[in-house]
Each structure stands twice: as structure tokens, then as C-alpha cells.
Amino acid sequence: MSTTWQLPATANGWVTDGGLETDLIFHRGIDLPDFASFPLLDDAEGRAVLEDYYRAYAGVAARAGAGLLLETPTWRANADWGARLGYDPEALRRINREAVAHLRALAHELGDRVVTTLVVGAMGPRGDGYRAGEHDAEHYADYHRPQLEAFAEEGADLATAYTLSTVAEAVGVVRAAQDVDLPVAVSFTVETDGRLPDGTALGEAVERLDELTAAAAAHLLVNCAHPDHVAAGVDVAAPWTGRIAGLRVNSSRLSHAELDEAEQLDEGDLADLRETTRRLASDLPAVRIVGGCCGTDARHVAAMWDGWTPRPV
């Protein structure tokens, strides 16, 4: 399964961040309409909050001797969600470019603390990440191309599309990234049974994506599920497991439906998260990116990295 771009090798893998939006809402008291954090880039106070957030993960990477992925706060910065927040296409292009530039400057500042840093343009699904979309790959390619184009124009090292619930959207993202000549990674989300929200088995989704795109995604991840939920969909003997390079997991064991309805943050248990993540990583031979998702913060990511390094690939 060859790709045109590969994540650079580091001795100790790559740290990425946790649940940005839930951290901002529940720990910092910041209102995020539509769960969107990118509007914080539009004022100095918001940018300072984001910088403080990312510096905590730089600390985790420094202690682990690992590389750092600085991922833009642009999960919601696409056309439908942007319009709800008053951002037209030109404003979205501006904010996506500014997000990359902002983290590029922070990466420069952190240069003497972290082994190496990449700036990643983070994307989300067109709709709700917990519900399967109904469009075809061509539609999704057209939809996501402007955001990818903005990342490419500003010189992002990589883009990653998170919380995807269908193969069609993943294929569309990969094809759009090829159109703008930007390396891209794809992250699926799964339900408690290890299947995508549309019922597709995780392994089938990985294999179909690679078949339909000639394995053009740089690598794959799974996000926004507890490690044991992901593990339910993993066949340790299957070749496709070698395509999963990253985990951004929830500490909570709640289902997506339960998380949607929860009025309080379920932060889970650090010891459980550390143990279950390591067990899952041992079944996925290529995992070298580890971070968190909903409900997690720098404490959770630090716990997952404490005393752990990925196996050589």
C-alpha cells in the first residue's frame, strides 16, 4: 500500500492534541456556537487562548522526546458550518489560511523545545460526525476542496480529515487533496461496536478507501471513540491494520448518542485510558500518532504517553 507522502520518522512518534472544543467549553468557559473554535482566531485574546492550549501539548512532546503535530482549530471551518457562523467563502479561505500561519509561527517559537513540528490543517465532516452523510465521493471532493486549497496555499505540511463516518466522504477528501497537491490523512470514527456510523466495518472502510484512491491517503487514524470501542472493530491478523497510524481517542466510554445528550463532561479515567490505549496500539503495528478527542485534555494525552513509545516502523 504505497503512498506519495509519508509522515517523517521520529524515534518516539508524534504527539497530537486532545479535545480542543470540550476543553475550551468546559475548562475555560468559552462559548463555542456550533462547536466551532476557529472564530477564536479573529481576535488577539482568542489566539492567546489557543496558544496556551497548544503549548501544553508541546510540553508532552518534549517530555516524550516525540515530534509534535500542531493541528489547526478548523474542524468546523467548512462551507455549511461557516455560513451558520457568518463566514462566507472568502472569509473561510482567510480563516483557514490564518490558522495555518498562526500555528507556523507557534511552531517556530517552540523549535528549541520539541524535536520536530508539523503544521496540520484539520478538517471535519460536512455534517454531524456522528451521523452518516448521504452524498457521493464527487460531491464531497467539491465540498472540501476549498478548505484544502486554503491549507495548501498557506503551506500546511499535511491535512487531516477527522470524524468521517462514510467511505464516500473519505474518498472525496483524498481526491480533493490530490487536486491541490496536499498530503492528506483520513480519520474514521466508530460506534461502540467498532463500526462506522453507517454500519461499515472499520477494516472494510480502510480497504475500500485504499482501493478507490490507490492508497493515496498518507495514513489513516481513528478518532472520537474509546479505545475499547475501536478495538471491537480490529482484527489483529488483517493487513489493513498496518494503515492505521494514529489514535485520537475518547476517555469516556459513552456512546456517541450518550455524548450528544450529556450535560456534563465525562472525562473518563486516566488509568483506564492509558491501559486501553496501549493495548489497542499493540494491536495496530503502525500507530505512531497518539492524542485525544472529546473530553480529553493535556492530562489525558500525557498519561497515554507516560512511559510509552511506538514500535519502530
TrEMBL record:
<dbReference type="InterPro" id="IPR003726">
    <property type="entry name" value="HCY_dom"/>
</dbReference>
<keyword id="KW-0479">Metal-binding</keyword>
<dbReference type="InterPro" id="IPR036589">
    <property type="entry name" value="HCY_dom_sf"/>
</dbReference>
<feature type="binding site">
    <location>
        <position position="224"/>
    </location>
    <ligand>
        <name>Zn(2+)</name>
    </ligand>
</feature>
<feature type="domain" description="Hcy-binding">
    <location>
        <begin position="2"/>
        <end position="308"/>
    </location>
</feature>
<keyword id="KW-0489">Methyltransferase</keyword>
<feature type="binding site">
    <location>
        <position position="294"/>
    </location>
    <ligand>
        <name>Zn(2+)</name>
    </ligand>
</feature>
<keyword id="KW-0808">Transferase</keyword>
<dbReference type="Pfam" id="PF02574">
    <property type="entry name" value="S-methyl_trans"/>
</dbReference>
<feature type="binding site">
    <location>
        <position position="293"/>
    </location>
    <ligand>
        <name>Zn(2+)</name>
    </ligand>
</feature>
<keyword id="KW-0862">Zinc</keyword>
<protein>
    <submittedName>
        <fullName>Homocysteine S-methyltransferase</fullName>
    </submittedName>
</protein>
